[in-house]
TrEMBL record:
<dbReference type="InterPro" id="IPR001851">
    <property type="entry name" value="ABC_transp_permease"/>
</dbReference>
<feature type="transmembrane region" description="Helical">
    <location>
        <begin position="81"/>
        <end position="104"/>
    </location>
</feature>
<dbReference type="InterPro" id="IPR043428">
    <property type="entry name" value="LivM-like"/>
</dbReference>
<feature type="transmembrane region" description="Helical">
    <location>
        <begin position="209"/>
        <end position="234"/>
    </location>
</feature>
<keyword id="KW-1133">Transmembrane helix</keyword>
<feature type="transmembrane region" description="Helical">
    <location>
        <begin position="161"/>
        <end position="179"/>
    </location>
</feature>
<feature type="transmembrane region" description="Helical">
    <location>
        <begin position="110"/>
        <end position="127"/>
    </location>
</feature>
<feature type="transmembrane region" description="Helical">
    <location>
        <begin position="246"/>
        <end position="271"/>
    </location>
</feature>
<protein>
    <submittedName>
        <fullName>Branched-chain amino acid ABC transporter permease</fullName>
    </submittedName>
</protein>
<feature type="transmembrane region" description="Helical">
    <location>
        <begin position="283"/>
        <end position="305"/>
    </location>
</feature>
<feature type="transmembrane region" description="Helical">
    <location>
        <begin position="28"/>
        <end position="46"/>
    </location>
</feature>
<keyword id="KW-0812">Transmembrane</keyword>
<keyword id="KW-1003">Cell membrane</keyword>
<keyword id="KW-0472">Membrane</keyword>
<feature type="transmembrane region" description="Helical">
    <location>
        <begin position="52"/>
        <end position="74"/>
    </location>
</feature>
<dbReference type="Pfam" id="PF02653">
    <property type="entry name" value="BPD_transp_2"/>
</dbReference>
<feature type="transmembrane region" description="Helical">
    <location>
        <begin position="6"/>
        <end position="23"/>
    </location>
</feature>
Amino acid sequence: MSILNKRMIIIILILLAVLFPFIVPNQYYIYIMSLSFIWIIAVYGLNLVAGFTGYLSLAHAGFFAIGAYAMGILTTKAGMGFWLAFILSPIITMAIGLLIGIFALRTKEHFFAIYTLCVGYIIYLLIDKWESLTGGVRGLIGIPPIPNIGPIELSNPVNRYYFLFIMLLLSIFIIYRIVNSLVGRTFIAIRNSEDLALSLGISTTANKLLSFVLSTFFAGLAGALYAIFIRFLGPEISSTIIMFDMLTYLIVGGIGTFAGPIIGTLLIVWTSQSLQFLEDYRMFVFGPLLTLIIIFSPNGITGFFKHLTVKRKMRKVSIPIETKKEA
C-alpha cells in the first residue's frame, strides 16, 4: 500500500470519526464510541510494551486503575483542581510503573508475564481492601465532570466525545513518533532478538524499562479519562477480566501492528454491544473467534491484510520476471 493511499485512508477515518455524532445521532452509540476511544488509548500503551518490545505485561489493567483512582482521589479527597489532577494522574501511574518495572524486568518471557499478573492482582487487592483511601467495594463516587473550556460545555455528550477523540489523536501521534524514532527501532530490535540487540551495544535493560514506563503512562492517561467519563470507580476495573479484555482487543486487531489497537477495540466493543442479548454466553462467540485468529493469523486482522498485500506485491514482481524468461 502506497504512502498516498495510507494517508487517504487515515483522512477518511478521521472524517468519519468527526462526522459520527451527526451520522449516528444516538446518545447511547456516542457514549459507546467515546468509551471505545478510552480503551484504544489503554490498548496502545499495552501494544508498546507487548507488541513492539515483546514483553507481555499482565498488570496493564492495574495501571489503568491506578490512573483512574489517582484522578478520583486527587479531586474528591485531596481537593485538587481538575486539570492539575488530570496531569498528575498519568505521571503518578508512570512513577509507580518505574518502581515496579525495575524489579519486573529482571525476569524474562513467561516469567515476566506471570510476575506482572501477580502485580496486577496485588493492585486489585489494594484497591479492594484499602477502604479509607479507595472506598473498597463501595467504590469511589463524586468524581467531578470535565469542566468547560471557555464557551465549550464538555458536559454535553457530543462535546465530550470530541474531547476524548482529540486525546486519542494526540496519544496515537505521540506513540507513532515513539515507534518510528530511534528509541522505537530499539524496542523492535529487542523484540526480534534481545541477544542480538545486546551484541550491537543496545542497553536492553534501560530500553525495556523505558518501554514499560511509557506503556504505564498511557494506561494511566486512559484511566484518568475513564474516571472523569464514568465518574464512579470500583475495584473491578483492575481485575484480570479487564486485563484479558484489553489483551483480546490487541490480539484480534494485531499485536505489534500500529492499526491493531483501533481495529481490535472497535470490532470487539461493537460486536459485544450487538451480542448483548446473549449476556454471559457471549464468550461462546469470542472464544472460538480468538482461537481461530491465533491459529490462522497470529498477527491479527491487521497482520492478515498486511500478509495479503505482501503476497499481491510479490505476484506483481514475479509475473514480469517470468514473462522476461519466456521471451
